[in-house]
Amino acid sequence: MSPENTTGLPTRPRRYLVAQDSTMLATAGFGGPLDFGSVVEQLQHDPRVEVRQSLRPRSVSAQTLGTTITDHVVVADMPDDVAAELRGHPQVVIEEDHLLQPQELIGGTIDPGVLIPFGVSTSWSLKIVDEADRPVVGATVYLYGSGVPAQGRTDDTGMISISLLNESDAGLRALYVNPQSGYWSMWVDRPQLTSGSLNTVRLQSLGAELPGFPDQQLIGWGQRAMRLESVPAGMTGRGIKVAVVDSGAAVRTHADLGAIHSGMDLTTTPANDQQWIDDTIAHGSHCSGIIAGADNGRGIRGFAPDAELVELRIFPGGRVSSLIDAVDYCIDQQIDVVNMSLGTGGSSQILLQKIAQAKELGVACIVAAGNTGGEVQFPGVSPDVLTVSAIGSQGTFPDNSYHAQQRWSGGTLDHDLFAAQFSCHGPEVDVAGPGVAIVSSVPPDGFAAWDGTSMATPHITGLAALTLAHHPDFAGGALSNRNAARVDHLFDLLRAAATPLSFGDPQRSGAGLPDCLRALGLQPGAQGSFPDAAAADADAIRIALAQLRLQLLAAGLLTEPAGAALVDDGLSERTRIRRGMAELRAQMLAASLSV
Fold it and tell me: Distance between CA 61 and CA 71 in Å, rounded?
């Protein structure tokens, strides 16, 4: 029998990515080049370590780019002291395998250490119904007092009871009701609720603001803002492969997703081609509907209904290692565009190099900026992706919905458009996409209005698929080859097609909101050349980055960069600068330096 644990609940070991940097020269004391196979064998036999997965490139074409740190990546759970031992070797790259999240918007955390664990619990009973007094089942209800909010989900009768400690009717700050599908959310400041009594809350159906929906097909406000309805009927994205790296899609039950036939579940080891159809959190279904919802006369229509969607399921539980595996799958399957409505506060040199590798082989990754309201999250900081922030539009949602809380309070309106309060922002933002009150598909066969850069990103991904399929620049010649120049040209077209937005901070919208007709070359504006920084500014940035890196190296705070440099022929100055900044940021995070 193992000894009793007298210290309470044990700490869960961290999960790490371990790889070899074969470009590093042998250092005195390490006896020559590293035999990474021996390192892997030691990990497998170390009782303190549990090896979870071994990732190797699927595609032979990736090997043409030369040796990189992505050639063999081991995913393992281990104590911090074992990880520290591995870090001591200059030819070993070790990073925490951070969890990724499809962004959630419910925030407002309070330090639980300041809360008093004594007092009286008060309960509020609520019944959530629609306009016809029918119960709204499965709605998530949040009740905010002065401390930590409480939450729960309505039962089959629409009922829920929520309790808060040391609160009264007069102290309630807000009520938020988030239905699963079919209704608008509700947000009420200072709700007039009475404890000890039944409180009835009525939600509006989506059809109250969208007449005829879902029986009549909807072109969403964001699609109209991008002028999708003016695109010729024959331009539907046929021939383009789009991967959605997310939570799967409800293809067997949802009429708007029934044309999706390909996918892989990467949450299991080994991966399987069956469970991707089980979308337990609905996020992937919602994104997929925006990109390629069926043009069937009802529900919602996507940007590119005839594009071939491939669902790569990594949620729930997705990590950086899951995304590395997904990007590698996209390289192997010659995916054209990848939608990444996800992010993390961490970083990874290994993933940065895998994404750069994907770009070199013609895979265009389009990534959400993030929903924390702060700096752009990883991997949106990668120089080899197109990063998307979120905007909203006045008058496209009920005034008492949660969507009405999303306008950035520090900004101004541009016509009816506004920057989203939750959207991450910074110089990495390339373009903005519609991301507030976006109606799309959710399991099993319903529709919901959601907010997030997760919703903005598939708007741009869908337009990217149309552009690759129908812009004359990609019809033949050099840009029909799968390489970095093709991806750069696509990104340039999308930025050049954007209408600039004036919110008071250009880092919240990048080049602006892309226009479908300009991106497709149907109207002037997309000439395929987005202006880079002036040459003098570019030189100054490169010099400053180099000087900073040398100073950190001299101080012993960094080691030399991991991984071999990828071929960058044809890369824009913008990409070279952003790649240098992202690599330096990843190194500093790995060295526990704040950035």
Answer: 12
